[in-house]
Every structure is written in structure tokens, then in C-alpha cells.
Amino acid sequence: MSPQNPQLLYFLALAAIPVILHFLLRAKPKKLLFPALRLIQMQRRANRRRMRLRHLLLLLLRMAVIALIVIGLARPTVPSANYTPSISEIVTTLVILAAAAGGYWAMLRFWRRKQLPDYELAQRRSFLRGGVAVGTLVLFLLLVVWPFQRRISAAISQPTIQQAENLPVAAVFLFDTSLSMDFKYENKTRLERAAEIATQHLNNLPASSRIAISDTASNEPIHFSPDRAIAQTQIQELKSSAISAAINDRIRAVVDLQVDDISRGQGAVADGEKFEDQFVRELYIFTDLSQHAWQPEGARLLQNELERLAALGVYLIDVGVEEPSNTSLTDLRLSSQTVPQGGVVTVDAAVTGTGTGSGAKTVGISIQGPAGEMIDQGSSDVQVDQIATRVRFPLSGLTGPVVQGEVRLETDDSLSFDDAISFTIEVQPPKQVLIVSDNYATKANFFRTALSPEELELSGDSPYRTKVIDSAQFAAEDLSRFDVVCWLDVGQPGFADWRALQRFLEAGGGAILFLGPNVNQASYLDETAQAILPADLLANRPFREDEQFDLRNLTHPLLRAFAEWDTSELASVNVARHWRTKPADDATVIVPYTDANETAAIIERTVGQGRIIMITTPFDRSEWSNLVTSVNVAVVLSDQLAQYVSRHDDERYNYTAGQIPVIKLSDEFEIKQLLVRKPDRTQPGKDLPPGADEVVIDDARLLGNYRLIPRNADIDFERGFSINAVASESDLSRLGTSDLNALFGEGRYEAARDIDNLTRQVRQGRVGREIFPWVLAIMIGIFVAEHFVANYFYQTETTAAEDITRGMSSNADQPAA
């Protein structure tokens, strides 16, 4: 314990005043003549012993009052630690008090039953009180105070106030710059509030202090600076970022900085000299305590890092709103990221509300016009609560090459970044599909009608352009003009056919093979065929009873449309006969049948840059299956097969913050430099190496839509992509005290919510915790006890004297025997 005014401790000598007054004003006995002297002498001896004990207790109480007044004025402090009694210490104290009270009243009741004389009962009661008090105190010291002292013994060894007050500070100000810090409350974002508190505290740091400013958006090394003006400028220039590291990681960087700085100081000390750190080491973390900014699973690692520098004071400045309200748009989904000219796309997003952000909301969708203006495409009213509600918008008649837009809340709220979500759609030419069959009039017509009806192709509204040929013409066809080749129960392909299909796949094409009754097993066992087929054909066999497609696993991209739409119709397709196969080692069974052996129904294999899919039952109206009986199944399955094997969705244009966009370039011409038009309207240039077939955008840190255009305006090329926030950024759930204790360790940090609270916490951390309120509370308790004891004792003395007098008078009035 260290007093802030040690000179006042000299006044502790005043505690001797009650002792002096006790001896000076002690009552002197008066000699009186009374009968029955023996009885009076016995009573006098008993009263003297009892009164000595009472006077001693009263004397100690009065001395304690004066001593505590002096100690309180000296404003003592103790090292910063967790002085709150634990549950076990509180329970132990209550048990001791209960045992003392129970023992006291039990002894009194026992003595009263023995009908002891009043003077003897009073004497025993006085000694009992003293014994119980001493026993209670001893037990309290042994069972409560001693464990309490051991628990805080580490804190007691901290530097005294005189050592710490004059030391400069090596402080790191670490700011949480995640997007949730843009939450606006009382006309200020949480980041602005953090900067305000940080600036005020910066001006309060001791002279010669060194300051480092860091944030979670930066991976740059942290450096100390003695110039406060530079630190203030850095604080004022802080901005939120869609890409942020976990606060745990940046704390580890801070510990490394402080440890390295101490090591440099030790290295500057001459051999044989003792090193003493000239700085108080402190870390200030400014955060809204949103859970997404931390890594709870890294708590043990964080505590280990902090143990490397036990002298580091950690101060957590909570600038968050305790009960935030927000409406957010997250989890963007597009039915397709690429569509043909005039195609249709469904855009949907999740809407979630917390607090006053719940209730009826209006969500709208718009697309960007030629001049950059946003063109409204409709709106929808939704009822929002904490459970996400999905809102869907169909977009049709899209023309390109790039369509960009956003889904937006019609009303703003306190957190703006998640009021809108951006999207990009690439508009491509229709996919070219070659349909090959032994009999065009029957089997090919089924597939062509399901995939791309003739009337849609003629009107230009179909995403596909189809051509149907006889299998005998396949080897002579120029396959480089096609994206997809579909074989429908082709019976006897030859070596030239397999070789042409192999070259097509290796170049990046996609193939679909439906097996049926016309397939000749021997033709499919050709060595070239085995190099590309997903499975070996064993035999065509009937099922004992009709089986169906097993759709328990709908995670494969081929089945995505069925997962979002309805699986019941596809699952109800009856298959009576199929080709038994043995899948290749590098093939994957996408869908099995529902039979006990889980026989393969749809199998895929990658060949070169292409994909090939085999379906072991035909796409027709035969006795093998009723696959095309349902129009919906035929249309959706044919479309999904064509999209998947053509790698329709391999090109990606919608990303979340932190992901690195990779955009493919055109094969038609070479682009040497691109302009990247960012959401803030800047468009820096990006040089491309010769022969590049893709561009990597590694500096897309802003949310919104981006455009890529050649610097050479003569080149007809345009691409785009969108960056949206990670969904967890909209989750404003806060860490509680138990969470922080689990992260840092109980008592390893101090928390504050404003500059005054922070100043108190820092002072306690540097110079110890002031215990004046405790001293004052104890003094008041002792003063009250002294007043009560004095009145009770003197009242008891008066009553006892009156009893004695009445007793003697009654004895004197009785006639002598």
C-alpha cells in the first residue's frame, strides 16, 4: 500500500489521544460505608474485570476512528488487481459469522437454564463475547484473509506510486476498423467516437512518451513515434475497411513491438549494468466489442502472448452501443452469373433486422444504366426480424456485355454499409450445343425441345443454339465451334469419333452421354474411349423393381437448381433398366440409384480442361425410364447438364471482401493495360504481362461494383465484378464480460467507456487503486460501533449499580435473625 500524501501519516500519533484521555479522566473511586461488605467486594471484583474489558474495547474503537481519518486523508493506494471477494470467500465469511452467532446464543441459553446468579451470568457473558470475537477474528484471518492475500500477492509487488508517476509511456493505440465501427449513434460513428477519446487521452500522456498508432485493416509493421502531432494526424485519418484482421492478431503484433523495444533498450546497456525499463508499457484497444472482430478460438494463444510481457497494461475502450438496432442485406445469390443476351436471372438476398431494425421494410432493386445512373427495376415489401427473410427479384431482357446493379433498403439506418448489396452479371453469346444421335427424328428431338425450343432460338431468347447431326457425321464435324456435345444413345462410335471427342474435351469442351438400348458395349471398350469415359460398361440390366434417383446429396452444382426449386419430380422418375458400370478411379458418382447397391446413375470425369458426364439411362420415352415424362424434369435437367459441362459458372464475378477477384481475358486480342474503375470513381491502370489470359485484382478493398476496360479504346472488351461485405460484419452481437475474461484472462485488462473512466483506470493501472472509499466506509462503521458500544456499556454500568444499590437496601431493611 502506498499513500499519495505520506506526510499526513505523522498525524497517526493523534491516535494516542484517547489513551491519554482515558488515564487522565479515569473515574476515581469514592469511599462509602455500606453493610454487607463481602457481597459488595465480590460484585466490585466482577464488575472491575468486566469494565476493564469494555473500556479496552471502547478505547481501541476510538483510536481506530482517529487512525482511519488520518489514513483516509493520506489517500493510500494498492496495486491494481481484482480485490472483489470471490464466491468462496463470501460464503466462508457468512459461515464463520453464523457459527459465531450460533455458538454465542447456544452458550447463553445453556447458562440461563442453569439459573446462575445475575452477576456471574453477566461476567460469563462478557468473557464469552470477547472469546467469540477473538475466535471469529482468528478464523476470518485464517480462512478468508490469508487466501485473499495469496490471491492478490502478485499485485502487491507492483511498483509504488513514486516510481511510476514520473515515467513516460510507450503506448500503442490499436483501433478496430471493421465495418461495424461505422455504426452511427448520437450523430457519430463508433470510429469517430474512438478517435475522440483517443485524442483526448493522447494529450494526457506524460512528457517524453512514445506513441504508435495501428488498426486492424493494416498489416504494416507498427512503429513508435515521439511526435504527438503525427499520432493525432494518424488518428484523424482512420477509416473503416471491408478487410480487417482479427484484433487478436494485431495484439500479438503489439506485444512483439513492445518486447523488441525492450530488447533494444537492454542491448544499449553496458555490460555489468542493471537494465531498468524507462517506460510504462501500455496498450489501448478501441473497439465496439462486436464478436466478429475477435477470434475466441485463439484465446489461449492470446493469453500466452500477453504472458510474454506481464508488465503490459491492457485497456479496452468500449465505444459500442449496448443495444444496437440494424437492418441488413446479406448473402447475395444469383441463379446464374452469366446469361445470354436477353436472358433471365433471379437475384435474391437475405434481410435481417435487430432491435428497431425489425418490422415492415421495403427493398428495391436497380441496375446501372449506360451513363452510370441507377435504373429502378422494382421493389418488394418484407417483414423483417432476427431470422433472415429472403427477397427475390427476377431480371429479364438483360443486354451486355456486363450488367451491374444493387439491391437496396429504401430507408437508411444507423449502419449504412449493409443497406445495399451489389451484383454483377456477364451477358454472353448463346452456348453452341451439338446433339448427336443415331435417329434424329426421335431421340434428338426430345433433348433439343427440352433444352432449346426452336421458337425461342428463332426469337433470340434462348441461351443455347443447337445443331443436330447423325452420329455418322460426328468425326467430320468442326467441334471447335461448339461448347457442348451431347450423345444420345449413340450405338457404335468408332476410333475417329472417340479421338475427336477426346480432343474436344482436352481443349475445354463439355460432353453429355446418355446410354440406352442401342449402345454396343464393345464399341465403348475401345482404348481411346476408356481414356475419356467416366466408367466402364459392364452390361445393361433391369431392376427387380423400378428404382429412382437418390437425391440425398444436393450439394453438387449440377443439382443446385433442383435444390432451390423442387426435388420431388426428379426423385419420382422411375427407372426400370440401366447400364451397370464400373466408375473410373478418377471419376465421381454424382447421383446413384436407390437400389441396395447404390448403382451409379450420373457419373462425371474431368478430361484435360473439359468435363464429361455419363447418364446410365436414356433421355427418351422407352421402357427403360420415364425421364422425359415430366416436362419440368426434362427442361431443368437438360439445362443444368449443359451449363455444368460448359463450365457456365466457373467464371466468377461476385466476391466477398477479402477474396481476390480473378477475371478471364479475351482470347481474341492481347490487352497490355487495363483501367480498373472502382466504386469511388477512381480508375487506376493495371499493366498486364504478355500473353496473360487472366487478370488478378489484389487491391479491391472497397465495397461495390468494379469495371475493367482496356486503356486502348479500340479494343472491344469489358468485364466487371462486385465486392460485398462478409455477412458476419452485420452481426452486431457484443462480447460480454465472461467472453473478455476468456480471451484475456480475468484481471488481465481494464475496460472503460469514456475518457473519465479511462483516466481512472489508467491511474489505477500505473499507481494502484485508491482505497479511500474503503477506509471511509470502515471508519464510519467503527464510529457507529463506538457510539453504540459507549451507550450500551454506560447504560449497563448504570443499571448494574442501581441493581446493587437496590439489593443492599433490601438487605438492610430485613431484621436481623
C-alpha termini separation: 72 Å
Rounded to an integer, what's the Rg over CA atoms? 44 Å
Low-confidence stretches: 154-163, 807-812
The biggest beta sheet reads: 7 strands, mixed
Helical content (DSSP H or I, runs of 4+): 25-40%
State the shape: elongated
Quote the beta fraction.
Answer: 25-35%
The structure class reads alpha/beta
Side-by-side strand order of the widest sheet: 18-17-19-20-25-24-23
Whole-number average pLDDT?
A: 83
Q: Count the strands?
A: 34
Give the number of helices: 20
Helices, strands, pairings?
Blueprint: E1 2-3, H1 17-24, H2 37-73, E2 76-78, H3 87-113, H4 118-151, H5 153-156, H6 161-164, E3 169-175, E4 184-185, E5 188-189, H7 190-204, E6 210-215, H8 228-236, H9 247-267, E7 280-287, H10 299-307, E8 313-318, E9 326-334, E10 338-340, E11 343-354, E12 359-368, E13 374-384, E14 389-398, E15 402-409, E16 420-428, E17 431-437, H11 440-451, H12 454-459, E18 464-470, E19 484-488, H13 495-506, E20 510-514, H14 527-532, E21 535-547, H15 560-564, H16 568-571, E22 575-583, E23 588-592, E24 600-607, E25 610-615, H17 631-645, E26 654-656, E27 662-664, E28 673-677, E29 685-687, E30 694-696, E31 704-710, E32 719-724, H18 737-744, E33 750-752, H19 755-767, E34 769-770, H20 772-813
Parallel strand pairs: 3-6, 3-7, 7-8, 8-33, 10-16, 17-18, 17-19, 19-20, 20-25, 26-32
Antiparallel strand pairs: 1-2, 2-34, 4-5, 9-11, 11-14, 12-13, 12-15, 15-16, 21-22, 23-24, 24-25, 27-30, 28-29, 28-31, 31-32
Helix pairs in contact: 2-4, 2-20, 3-4, 7-8, 9-10, 11-17
